[in-house]
C-alpha cells in the first residue's frame, strides 16, 4: 500500500541513511492514523537490509516491534489462538528489559538492527526510564524508531536524544483518495463527514466509516451549535456511544469532539475564544488519559457533552 503525505519524511530518512553516520534514535511524530507505523516498518526493513543477504518477506529477525501486550493471561491465550484480544493500557518495563536482553546479541542477518516502539508515548514511566538508558548508550548497530502520537508526553531526555520526523495531516484531496481506495462502500455524504471529523488523519477517517460514527458526530455538532439545556441530546449521544463501548470507540469519540472544537475555531468571535480554549484543553487531557484510564462511558459522554454545550452558551452570551 502507498501512503500519502510521507514524501518529506522519506527524503529525510534516506538522506540520513546515505550519510556517513546514521543517528541511532528517531521519533516519528504526528496524529494517530497518519501511517507512522507503516513508515516505521518499511524504513526499518530498508535500514537492516544487507544487499549480500537475501531478506525474508515476512517477519524480520533484525526488527524488534514493541507495543501494548495483552491485558492479562486470558487475553494472551486469545492472542496465541488467533482470536481478538484486549490490550494493556501501557507498554511495560518487563517488555523493555526483555528487549534489552535481546540487544546484547549481534544482529542475525546483517550489521544493523531496528527497534520499533509503538507508541512510545504509552510507555510506563519506569519503562521510559529504562529505554532512556539504551538511547544514552545504544548497542552497536541498533537503531530506535519511536512512534509518538503525542510527542509532548515523551520524556524530554528521550526527545533530546532523538531526531524527529514529522508526519503532517493530509489535505482534503489526499483524504478523498484514501477513502475512495480503502472505503469504497462509503457514500459521498459519509466521506465528507469522515474527512471533516478526521482533521487530516486517514486512519481516523477510515475508523469513522468502520465504526459508523456519523450519528455521534452529528449530535456533537448540534450540541456545540445549540446547546443541550435539557440533556436530551446527551442522552442520544450516550445511546450512540453504546453501553459498553470499546476503548477504540471511546478514543474515537474524544477525537470527534476535538475535531468539532477545532472546526469552530475558524469562525469564533473573540468572546467565545475562552470556552474554545477550555474545551480543547479538557479534551486533550481526556485523550491523554484514555489509554490508561477505565472511563465510565456515561460519565465520558456527559463530560464531552458539557464541554461542547459550553461552546453554544458562550456564543449565545456573545450574541446577546
From TrEMBL:
GO cellular component, one term: DNA polymerase III complex
One biological process term in Gene Ontology: DNA-templated DNA replication
Superkingdom of source: Bacteria
Region (Disordered): 52-83
Extent of Basic and acidic residues compositional bias: 59-83
SUPFAM superfamilies per record: P-loop containing nucleoside triphosphate hydrolases
Chain segments annotated as coiled-coil in the UniProt record: none
Protein name in the entry: DNA polymerase III subunit delta
